TrEMBL record:
Belongs to the class I-like SAM-binding methyltransferase superfamily. RsmB/NOP family. GO terms for biological process: methylation. Keywords: Methyltransferase, RNA-binding, S-adenosyl-L-methionine, Transferase. Transmembrane segments: none annotated. The keyword RNA-binding applies. Pfam families: Methyltr_RsmB-F, NusB. S-adenosyl-L-methionine binds at residues 283-289, 355, 372. One of its GO terms (molecular function) is methyltransferase activity. Residues 1-27 are annotated as: Disordered. Residues 179-487 form the SAM-dependent MTase RsmB/NOP-type domain. SUPFAM superfamilies: NusB-like (SSF48013), S-adenosyl-L-methionine-dependent methyltransferases (SSF53335). It comes from Nonomuraea spiralis. This is RsmB/NOP family class I SAM-dependent RNA methyltransferase.
Length: 488
């Protein structure tokens, strides 16, 4: 926190003689404010823009961490803060003033910034960036907001928890109402809903993958990472820049959520009769799963399923086996620049720009197919703090049509006896079970396997046959997996 010579609690009064003190620039707060404006004005992606902004402005270390917490935290809590701001304002603030109020509210209600500093620095920012009149207004509103703790505001601004539990949780945990409803449906009830929404508001751990044959968890541990909970290739990086780790810079390792690793591994663990040489990753960009699949295809699942991880029933009864290596991956993406990213991160895979709905490959030639379908991304709200406010229910229907077409062509691409993984980074039923049910229901050449059999190291994946990861249960994104075998 920059130390300031501040006479009053708002920091507006000069201590010495002369006119009003000229506020100093607070680089972290200015960056956070600029990010909020960019998200609001031009639909910027926070996780892409902020790192660039910090780099260009030379903001590092604690200031960079502060700017990130201010920006991401404010974006996540937006729904809650807006309800409180409305209650404390006698007029609708202009968009730039509203963003400053949100920033101040986040510091007052969720960060451990002392109230006088939260108010003072926000007022300074508004005086510099908007004007004196707006600064006075912001001072008055923030003082009202700071008069109560967050838990005391919730019962005042949120719908009654008994009468409208979804509406209450939506305001209390800053999620759009339709997303809270969708999560409740996917969880099969409201029991864990608050825990899930809370987990969505927490900063996710940076998880790395040590691509087998190219790096190892032991190598990542030398850079301070600790072994993951489930995936034999995962390591958690609690601090530091992953880009500075040699193995990551050389694409032998990468940043990858643990559930993303596990759904890719599950696909490779399904035992197949006959050949197992050619795999397809149909929607591969930017290449996270393709990078792991390419390494396992080439070198094998080196850490494999050890005695503890292997299901008691063994492979004959549906349990998984460790892939020994010796396969090739074809990775496709409809967007050239995303296919390029796949090419940069993989070593042995062939990469093409191709539309999966109009296949550039012959049907029935692949032994395994990964379809990581384009989706709403509602399972990764922790990572994209503004995403929850961007999506709307209409996008579900649009994506649903594409997901069905892609799953149809994925099933056509696999040979008899081969297996398709249908994956989404969304738990929304209309993108997961409903899509699988519709497509499989119209065909007689496909059976759904129990995906949980191929993830024996993970509990709490649901009632099957698909597997659903959850941030509050597993500390991962809410990734969905269905494994479909083409009948021999
Ligand atoms: C969820 S992302 C895939 C993430 C990727 N598997 C990974 O792990 O990094 C979905 C991808 O599907 C691609 N896509 C969308 N429509 C497609 C289509 N018709 N054919 C092929 N790829 C498509 C998008 O460009 C996007 O890169």
């Amino acid at each position: 926190m920059p130390s300031r010579d501040r006479g009053g609690p708002t920091g507006t009064k000069p201590r010495g003689a002369g006119g009003p003190r000229r506020p100093a620039r607070d680089h972290a707060r200015n960056a956070a404010f600029d990010l909020l404006r960019a998200v609001d004005e031009r639909d910027a992606y926070a996780n892409l823009l902020l790192p660039r902004m910090l780099r260009e402005r030379g903001i590092r270390g604690r200031d960079a961490a502060l700017a990130t917490e201010l920006a991401y935290g404010t974006l996540r809590g937006l729904g809650t803060y807006d309800a409180i701001i409305e209650m404390c304002s006698d007029r609708t603030p202009d968009p730039d003033v509203r963003d400053a109020l949100r920033l101040g509210a986040h510091q007052l209600l969720r960060m451990r910034v002392p109230p006088h500093a939260a108010v003072g620095t926000t007022v300074d920012l508004v005086r510099l960036r908007v004007g004196q009149g707006a600064a006075k207004f912001v001072n008055a509103v923030l003082r009202k907001i700071g008069s109560r703790e967050l838990e005391d505001w919730i019962p005042i601004v949120a719908p009654d928890a008994e009468r409208d539990p979804v509406g209450h949780l939506a305001v209390a945990y800053g999620h759009p109402r339709w997303i809270v409803s969708a999560f409740r449906d996917a969880l099969g009830g409201g029991g864990e809903l608050a825990d899930l929404l809370d987990a969505d508001n927490a900063r996710p751990l940076v998880t790395l993958v040590a691509r087998p044959g190219r790096s190892s968890v032991a190598e990542l541990a030398e850079s301070g990472a600790t072994p993951g909970r489930y995936s034999p290739y995962a390591a958690y990086l609690r601090e530091g820049d992953p880009g500075q780790i040699e193995a990551v810079a050389e694409t032998r390792a990468a940043v990858q959520d643990e559930a993303s690793q596990l759904v890719a591994l599950a696909l490779t663990r399904v035992p197949l009769e006959g050949e197992d040489e050619l795999w397809l990753d149909m929607c591969a960009g930017p290449g996270g799963k393709a990078g792991l699949l390419d390494a396992v295809a080439s070198y094998g699942d080196l850490e494999g399923l050890d005695g503890e991880r292997r299901t008691d029933d063994g492979p004959e009864a549906g349990g998984g086996v460790a892939f020994p290596g010796g396969a090739r991956v074809l990775a496709a993406d409809v967007q050239y620049h995303r296919a390029r990213l796949v090419w940069q991160t993989t070593r042995n895979a062939s990469v093409v720009t191709a539309d999966g709905t109009e296949p550039a490959w012959r049907p029935g030639v692949f032994d395994r197919v990964m379809l990581d379908a384009p989706c709403t991304g509602l399972g990764a709200l922790r990572r994209r703090p503004e995403a929850r406010w961007r999506r709307d229910p209409a996008s579900i229907a649009e994506l649903g049509a594409l997901q069905r077409r892609l799953l149809g062509t994925a099933l056509d691409a696999v040979r008899p006896g081969g297996v398709v993984a249908y994956v989404t980074c969304s738990p929304h039923l209309a993108e997961t079970r409903v899509v699988v049910g519709d497509v499989v229901g119209r065909r007689d050449d496909v059976e759904e396997l129990d995906a949980r059999d191929y993830l024996p190291e993970v509990d709490g994946l649901g009632d099957g046959p698909h597997a659903q990861f959850w941030p509050h249960r597993h500390g991962t994104d809410a990734m969905f997996l269905s494994l479909l075998r083409k009948r021999p």
